[in-house]
Amino acid sequence: MTILSTHMTHGFKTALAAVLAYTITNALALEFGYWAVISTVIVMQVYVADSVEMCLYRFSGTIIGAMLGVLVILFIPKTPIPVGIALFVTIGLCSFLTRYKKRYRMAAITVVIVVMTGLQTQDALMFGVSRVLEIGIGIICAFAVSVLVFPKRKVDVLRAKLEAQANHCADSCRVLVDAFLSRQRNVEESLLTDLVKDVWDNHALLQKIRQNESLIYHKKFKENFALKVSVISRSVEHLRNMAKALNALDDNGYEIIMSRELKNVAEKSGRALVVFVKNEPLTVKDDLERTISELNAKFLNIREEGLIRRFDAKKLIQVFSFYSSLLYFSDDILSGINEL
Questions:
Q1: Coil, strand or helix at 236
Q2: What pLDDT does 4 receive?
Q3: pLDDT tens digits for 59-87?
Q4: Domain extent listing, the chain
Q5: 3-state SS track over 287-332
Q6: How far is residue 261's CA from residue 266's CA, in Å, rounded to a whole number?
Q7: 3-class secondary structure, 98
Q8: Above 90 in pLDDT, residue 321?
Q9: Residues 6+ apart with CB under 8 A from 257
């Protein structure tokens, strides 16, 4: 779905929720039904998770604010100075409490609504309950439309992000191994910059999905997203270490004897990561295990033959750092596959 179509859908859903709230408040002949319509516009978000979060935020804040507003109407003289002082205290308190919970910002708004529109009412308690009812109707309408009408879920966004990141990791691994085999050629520092930034967002996105979407779409949440996010994060860190090892020295470098085995590990690991993230049949597991074993056997053979003695100390550290980071990259992917 394109950005344009996403926002067109959002506009349609917001308008639909507003009309639904308007229809219900008209049918119930609620005096201030427009608060229901306003509430739908406030809480309706592009993604279901954000809409649910806003619904909870708006409703809980409304209840707190309505209670404070009713107390002001009941116990404060209805003259400008006492009312002004009461507004100052209640709004100031709610605004201060936003440092702990965002819902208190909505509480401050509701205090203003209840006090400014209800000073002349004869039944303050009923007036406050009515405002909660009206706003509650708007919230319910927004929630229902968000969940039932063309829902755009963040769980789908996370799935798409992980697949794109897995492909990026696979491509980057091949580029890094090719650079290593080309006499340890330096790589551009920007190679992984965008990927690192994108991966950092996964954890916050996963947390929001867990809090606001997992109970509604529990069947869609059966995939082990936490494991996938963790494997992708570790994979990117290993790739960064490989890039750092390549850029640690700026020299002509050496020909690498086990180039075939390193290329195979890079290719099979990248493919396994993509398959793992996509939940495709994990037929690559045995192939990856065999490829890693071949690489380790080749390395032990080279070490026993004393062929690594040609490296000076700095070059030896560079080669071992790159080699171990590539193995960690492969092993973490294999471990993730085994946990599924």
A1: helix
A2: 67
A3: 888 899 889 988 988 888 888 899 899 99
A4: 3-148, 154-339
A5: HHHHHHHHHHHHHHHHHHCCHHHHCCHHHHHHHHHHHHHHHHHHHH
A6: 9
A7: coil
A8: yes
A9: 302, 307
